[in-house]
Amino acid sequence: MLGCQPGKIFVHRSIANVVAYNDLNIAAVLQYSIEHLKIQDILVCGHYGCGEVKASCEEYEIGGSIGDWLMITGWTKRWVLERFQKQGKVPPIGEDFFRLLVE
User: Fold this and answer.
1) Please, what's the b/e burial string for 6-37 (b: 16 or more CB within 10 A of its CB; e: otherwise)?
2) What is the pLDDT of residue 94?
3) Angle formed by the axes of helices 95-102 and 64-86, to 10°?
4) pTM above 0.70?
């Protein structure tokens, strides 16, 4: 797809492409990429229609590691809602709201 040879792309994946402040795995991946592989261009991408983003908006709680991960995206939900409240606006309902969370 990209026309690159094996070993030319270094990939790290996570659920919902969340880059959490306390994720030692992504921190190590970035440090290794930058300091040892001398990678200059880093691309972080997500996608619309993300099931994890939708799950973080549900009213029920999920326990364990999945629940902890959903909580991170839940912070994004609260941040977006606060932005709307400060502007005196009502957030869009449904897919438009999920798109804002992804963005």
Assistant:
1) eeeeeebeeebebebeebeebeebeeeeeeee
2) 83
3) 100
4) no
pLDDT over 90 (residue 68): no
Where residue 21 falls (left for φ over 0; alpha for ψ -120 to 50; beta otherwise) is alpha
The distance in angstroms from the start CA to the end CA of the chain is 25
Domain formed by 15-102, architecture: 3-Layer(aba) Sandwich (3.40)
Give 10-60 pLDDT, tens digit per residue: 788 888 778 888 889 889 999 999 999 898 888 877 788 888 888 888 877
Question: Would you kindly state where each structural domain of the chain is located, as residue ranges?
Answer: 15-102
Backbone angles phi, psi at 44, to 5 degrees: -110, 125
